[in-house]
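> run fold Histidine kinase
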Amino acid sequence: MKTPFYISHKLIWISSISLGILTSIPKIVDHNFILSEGIADFGVTTGFALLIWYYNIHSIPAYTKKTGSKNVISPQLFRGLGVGLVLMFVLSSIQYYILSHLNFGPKMLMYEVRGVLINLTFYMFIHLLYQTYLNQQVVRELERSMSANLAAQYELLKQQVNPHFLFNSLNTLKYMVESNDTQSAEFIIKLADFYRFTLGSLKLNLLPLGEELQIMDSYIYLLKARFEEGLVISMNLGREIYGSFIPPFTLQLLVENCIKHNIVSLEKPLHISIGQEGDYLIVSNNIQPRKISEPSTGLGLENINQRYLHLSEKEISILMDTETFTIKLPIIYEHTNN
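> ok
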């Protein structure tokens, strides 16, 4: 959560009262000092300072990414000066109404000049504090984003260099070699391709969808060699979106998630489809849960969601009914890292 911009009420009141005292000192040291005039002068300055403090604070816009580059000279400054002139006129008029013996013209001019100086000083001070606040918010957001991105990369690394996946792949290769399967050499090539893509893409935030599908081709080949007809993966994607972008290994993680939580067998084939619906990639599978489900931390889908939020400010959608589990991934048409 973002920390709200805040200035201590104690600071506001102490600074306002101090200004009132400072502006009253010349009258206090004057030989012709009149207590009522000193109190009135103190009251006008203190009251004006308090009102202009709160006006400037409440006129600051709420934190957004677009306000970080706000200029010092802005419409807000001129509105504040206009409001300050009106406020000082009203307070001076009240003073004149109470102390009608004062010469209103010169007093009014002195108060208005004083009000402009106080207004400018407070505005510049608040602007400096607000810019510091914005910079702190940006730094905190970057830290949170980097932390989420590192966590996602760590989870991705754990899943990609998954000992179980490697163990199963090597077992499959062993069986193919022992049975003199003619596809053994192709299996080794695909396995090498898959891990080469893995190691080469882990540090990337985004990858062209066409390259992601090349990785998927090797991955699906390895899975088909293991599950044969027990796993049916279909793709229906137009080539016009091959140039869009996707966080690396997103599709592979989703397919792995399907296999992890569902029965995959010749008797009960698992059907996984990858397609497009408007501005979304759709990954769906039929639901046939395992009798003994593997433990799940829920980090896989959450990390994918966090990466989409970080890279495109869009969330993934998770839909489920009694028969189908579906993930909708926003298509990223521009490389946001640029």
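Confidence is low (pLDDT under 50) at residues 62-69.
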